């Protein structure tokens, strides 16, 4: 059977989809992540915003355009949240976020089975990697319960993968994989037993000689001890995606974020003490229901002062079942859009300023696209190299020349 596994949402979903593709191939199926003709489609859905759920539903019709008679299987956060939105669209079988691999036993079934959310890490997935960058899942779930976020209700409480299981997966990576990205719903809460263990895990992984990168993390992770460990590693990529959400203390409190703007800014200063040219990217939500114009201006000035290397900006999306949806009235969409556009303009300028601050770097060449080889620097600048003799998978020393598209034109150092 030819099966297409289609993914919406975060890098954790991407890892899980890749793991399903690996399992499908091992069972004798022809499987890929491409939206193309197939006998069956598995759609790994997202529910972080209303728009994400909408796109998850729309993917059903996009798949049916290739094969109207195909079986369609649904899994992930959106189906964990509301199965009815998919049942009404005549799909074959539905699971949620738990026990996703069991879907592979239901390829001839019709119906749904939403399994109970686990209390320990489900270590039943292994993602075969064949590209230059590998995503390795180390954690699932979240304990923060931010007032706007539905994910803890859909993914369950935080739980960590055993270190030896992670090591075993990295050991099996092929030589062409040159970079490992550790992913999870809350990577910051990765634990070894009862103790926070991300620094110790990175020390173990450093011996494999592959570039190491972290996905999104929380401000609470940043302290002298952790940064000293990172600075001692040979292969750590200094890119920190710290989730801000707001630069206004009034809004942060209503969001149930457990830090102040000042504490967050001190964390950024501490990072730059150890990694002066670190890429520091962030998420910002505009238009939270209690956000006044003055609150937004406070966030704007905070972002401007901290000088992030890149912003990911989202208008607030009301999620039924969250504390914010019960307590606060949503703001008009026009206000959200105005604030979004203003912050986007600032983000564009900050990104260009960060690109210009780079003089040299090391770039992992990931693909050839037209006249350019493309890849990312250690501090996460998208780099474009005009060269005739580079090899995909190589790491090259470069000089930065000028901003270009979403990154920079660079030249290989001779």
Key traits:
single chain, 414 residues, alpha/beta, Rossmann fold, pyruvate-formate lyase- activating enzyme, OB fold (Dihydrolipoamide Acetyltransferase, E2P), 3 domains, 6-stranded parallel beta sheet, 5-stranded mixed barrel, 13 helices, 21 strands, 34% helix
General shape: globular
- The number of strands is 21
Tell me the domain tally. 3
Q: Which fold name corresponds to the CATH topology of the largest domain? A: pyruvate-formate lyase- activating enzyme
CATH superfamily of the largest domain: tm_1862 like domain
Give the rounded overall mean pLDDT.
96
**Beta-sheet strand percentage?**
15-25%
Class of secondary structure makeup: alpha/beta
Please identify the top-level CATH class of the largest domain.
Alpha Beta
Give the CATH architecture of the largest domain.
Alpha-Beta Horseshoe
Number of helices: 13
Looking across the biggest beta sheet, what order are the strands in? Answer: 2-1-3-4-5-6
Which segments are poorly predicted (pLDDT under 50) over 5 or more consecutive residues? none
Largest sheet: 6 strands, parallel
The termini sit apart by 50 Å
Helix content: 25-40%
Radius of gyration, whole Å: 22 Å
Task: Give an overview of the whole structure.
With 414 residues, this protein is of the alpha/beta class. It folds into 3 domains: 2-112, Rossmann fold (3-Layer(aba) Sandwich); 133-357, tm_1862 like domain (pyruvate-formate lyase- activating enzyme, Alpha-Beta Horseshoe), CATH 3.80.30; 360-412, OB fold (Dihydrolipoamide Acetyltransferase, E2P), CATH 2.40.50.140. A hairpin with a 2-residue loop joins β17 (360-369) and β18 (372-377). The protein has 13 helices and 21 strands.
